[in-house]
Structures are given as C-alpha cells and as structure tokens.
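Example record used in the benchmark description.
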Amino acid sequence: MKNWILSEKITQTNDNCGKINLGGKMNSFDIEETVAIFKEESKSILTDFVHQLSTYEKNKDIEIITKLMRDAHSIKGSAGIVGLTDVQKLAHSAEDLLAEIKNEQLSDQKIADNIAEIKIIVAEITKSIKSLDENGSFEDKINEILKYIPSLKTDKVTAFPLLKLTNSLTQDNPEIDEILKICAKIFEKIQNCEKTDNNLINTLSATFKIIKKVVCDGSKSEDLFFLKQRISIAEQMINVQSPARPYPQKTKNNITDILKTLGQGSIRTLRIESDKLDKLFVNVGNLCNMTGKAHKNFENLSELTTKFSSKMFELEKSLNDLKTLANSETGSKNLIQKLTKEIQKNQQNLSEIQQMFCDYEKINAEESEMFSKVEKYLSNVTKTVQGVRMLPIGVILHMYPRMVRDIAQNEQKEVDIEITGAEVSVDKQILDEIKTPIIHLLRNSVDHGTELPEEREQKGKPRAGLISVAAKKSGQTLTISVKDDGCGINFEKIKQKAIADNFLTKEEAQTANKSDLLNLILQAGFTTQDHVTEISGRGMGLDIVDSKIKELGGNIKINTEEGSGTEILLEIPLNTSTCTINPQEKHHEKTKKVVVIDDSQTTKMYFSKILQNAGYNTLAFNNPIEGLKEIQQNGCDLLISDIEMPEMNGVELISQLRQNEKFKNLPIITISMLPIEETQKMFGDIFVDFMLNKSDFNEQKLLDKVKSLVG
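Model output (structure tokens):
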C-alpha cells in the first residue's frame, strides 16, 4: 500500500514538469529511506556547524565561511529532495548571512549579529530535523494503537495508520523490535482480509499492552520469547484467512498444520543496521592491519632464527677447532685433559641448544600454518562483508526525480528525467559520498541547462527537456553521467562573468581556451547567474562537486555543445573502502629445490635458513639414508652434503647417486671440516661441482655458487 501510493506520486504526469521515467529495473522510491538518509547527513553537518562559527569568531578564517556555505547549500538541496520546504528556506537564509560575511566589508558588530542569527537558524533546522523522530512519545503512540485496534473488526482502513504508527516505533531491544515487525506485517495483511476475527484483535491488543509494560513501565516479568511465538502464530493465522493476496493462493492449512511448521526451515535474510555493518567493516579492516603486522613479526622472527643458527654454526666451528688443537697438542697432559673435558661439556650444551631450536622451529612452523588459515578465513570474511555493503546505486538515484520535478515547477519548466544503471552495485560508503554531487549536477541541469518550454519550441526541441542519469561500472571505476539536452555552456558568457567578477583579466580571457573556462566554472564562487535564487547563483554547486570527487580520488569530465546540451561525467575509483589481505611478499619464487644433508643440526639449520631466505625450496636431513631416499624418489635441483657422517658418508652417498643415470649431472656441493686437498683425494674420480670447507665458510660465496649452478 505504502509503495503504491509513493509510486503514484512519482510517475504521475504534471503539466509543468512532464513525466518522470525511472527506467531500468527501478520501481518506486521509499520516502522513509530518503528521509533517513537526509537526517543522517544533516545531523552530521549540523553537529559541527556552530563549533565552526565559534572558531571563525576567534580567527576570522574566511575558508571556514566558505565551507559553511557549502554545508548550508548541501542541506538546502537535500531538504528539497524530501520536501522540507521550511528547512530549505532556513538553509537559504543561512547562506545569505554567510555570503554577507564572506563578500562584504562588515563591521565586527554586524558579523556578530549575522553569526548570532545563523546560530538561531541552525537551532531551528536542528529542531525541525529532530521533530522527524519525535512524532509523539513511544507511550503516546502505543496508546493511539490500542485505541484504534478494536475498530479493525469493522473498519479495515484503520489498518494503514496503525501500520505507519507501528513502523515508527523503534527500540534498542531486538526482541521487541522483532515483535513490532511482525505486528506491522499483520496490519499490512489485514488490509487484504475479508474479515478480522476477535482472536486476532485480542492478540494484537495484548501484545501492545505487554510492549507498553516492558518499555514504558519497566516490567521485567514479561516473557518476550513467548509473546513472539504467540504473535507469530497470529501472523500465520491471518495468512490462512486472507484470500485477497496478490499471489496464487495455496491450499489452506488448519492451525494444527501451522503449529507443526513453526520453527522449521532457516532464516535466509537478515536486516542489518548500516552503522552496525560499518563497525563490522572497521573491525575487519583492523584485523587486516593486524595480519600485516603479524607478517612483519614472522619476518623478524625468521631473521632472528637465521642469526641464531649462524651463531651456533660459529660456535660449532670453534669447538671443532679446539678439539683438533687438543688432539694435536703435546704439552701438559692435565691441561689437555681439562681442555678436552671443557670441549665435551660445551658440545653437550650445543646439542641441547640445537634440540631447543628444533622444537622452536616445529612450533613456529605450526603457528605459520595456523596463521595462513586465519588469513584465508579473514580474506573470506572481508569479501563477504564487502559484498554485504554493496548496494544498488538505485538506493540514492530514487531520491532525485521528486527534486527535479519540484525545481522544474519552481522554474516554470518542463523536464523529464530518465535513470539507467540503477542495478549497478556500489559500496555503501561511496554511495554516501556521491549523493550530494549528483544533487548539484541535477539542479544545474534544470536551472542552467534546460530552457523554458516556449524557448525550446522556438529551437525546434520538445517542450519538455530531458535529463539522463546513467551509472555504469567498468573494472574498478564507477562512472556516473548527468546529461541534459538543453542550451549547453555559453563560453562567451563565462568570459564576460569571469572578467566582471575579477576571476580573469581581459587579456587572460582572450587567450583562455575551452578547457581553461571549464575549469573556471568548477571554482568556488564562480557563477554565470546575475542574481541569487534558492536554486543557484552563489557559485557553490560545482565547487562542491569538484571537491567531493577529488576527495574520492576521482575526476570530472565535461562535454558540452552550445545549443545541444551538456554531459558531466564523474569517474570514481571503487577501491576507496576496500580492505585487502596482502600475503607476505617474497622476492624470489621457490622454484628450485635444494636438499641439505648434514649430521650436524647446527649446519643443517643454518644452511637451510640461508637458502630459504634466498628463495629456494629447501629440504634438510641429518640422516644421509633418508636424504638419499628423498632424492631418489622425488629428485632435486641441487644437493649440499656433508662428508663425515654416520651410517653413510658423503662419498658413498654421492657415489650411489652418480651411478644412477638420472643423477649423473645433478649439481652437488660438499661441505666438511676437512682440508680441500684431503676431500679431493677421498672422492677420486667421483665428480663434485664444488667443495666447501666449513672453517673458510662465507655465506655470500655459497649463495653465488648455488645461483651459478641452479639459477
């Protein structure tokens, strides 16, 4: 019922205005939603308005007045959309007073008087907007509902005002809000019922009496869950007794069948308040930032473990050197025994540290795996929340036909408006930001662009002008076109006004090209109008559009042809509110597989860290038999092997590999504490690409050699 009435208002043909064609997939607009948007936007502006005035009184910064003029201009335009003519006039008066402060040399007393008057106007506007929320107290509305519910039995028309009253009741209590929504559905359905029985009327009366007790009297004894069940059953009952529904009627169920089906199925749609969704999105964004910091922490830990393994490697080398020295020393027997004992003790300490390091590495690997899963889940949540925030652009486009109609009537013009692309989905944040720019573009199209009907007929055009609003999305860019078939932009008039208002000198105007002049009309204070009206004349509209689109990182394009019309394109990037999970970046792809085999935990871990940090996919083994098995089964691109190992030494391991045709040319590097000459003798004819002595080890030298062998 509500939507039909509003739709009728929009689509009617008016002698002065012409028809309004919503086009695309749009239906009627919801005035309640439009008013809600207006309230939210205006309250946000007014909250800071008086504070800004006080700041101006202290420092006389004229930029503050310019900003306040834009704010007043925006409120005036939005008030026109929702039909609040009183607010529109008040905002216009505030603009006049602000313009006097900006454009004239006023005395301090006159400025103070203007500011005092503006504060009174702001208070009046705030009061008017607040009154939209205060159409009587909650208790008054409940009493009104209880008063008229009995008349439903004989007068179904009463259901419509009862529906409106119920829709105006809101509470912080989710259970009560849910019950009120069910009641509203019942009132809506009653309008299509043949009759309304006493049981339903009594249930409705009892429901609102209980709600009144809970909300107004603070009763804690009422069972809201039971109340919700009872009113839900009542709604099901009215479905059964309502044959006049606009959809095909199903087989009637009796109350027993209805009770059996209650609670079955699942809720597929939830209505979420936008501020709650915004908070959720902020929290998801914070989590994204936290994962970024966690990535950095993992990188720092990786660096620390590399340094730690390097120190262990150095310690192990020192102990081996001392051991060699002790074995070759011919001095004091007691000193040698003492030195040997100390070496053994430190080797035991080193072994324990190595084990602790292995335990740490295992835990770190598990945490890294868990963190990767958290990242994946968070990425999915982010995409879901972003999807929920996506709304069809028709949510805001539906506001404009009424405004265009009202402006056209006021200007004694005839205008048709056509909207396409209403189904294009955009993030709610972007929709909030582009509402005001589109308002100003449409006002300009009606006021500046569209000619009077008689003038259009003389030019061979239809009496009614056509304004087209089109939205489309290409990749990560939203493009909104506002186009009229009016008179186009008169560049000569722009030059004359620019000279008259001291924006350009005569010489500058003569050399200015069309691009320069189009940029000029976007500047604050520039207008081609000779006098100020409620619609235009202050040079604020396009300045507001330009400022807002630049804030969004977008740009404006203007295409115009004198006598044929003007098109203004707003191009806005869609990634302004996107939270993206950035996985840890690697400078190298892990395409090359390196196997490290060394019975020393320290060497194995240290070499693995060096190679992993360089971007290689590294597998490390301290058991040569296991390492050999891995290579034989799965292959590798490079082998780095120790020589002196238990169970199987490096010579035996590499000899077995070389006997296999598959690994005949496998790049191999050996590492050992033995001198290079001795190592070469041990290998004889067995080919090894490079032999490395641990005592002379150099990290960069190893990496250079690995790169030369496998890239």
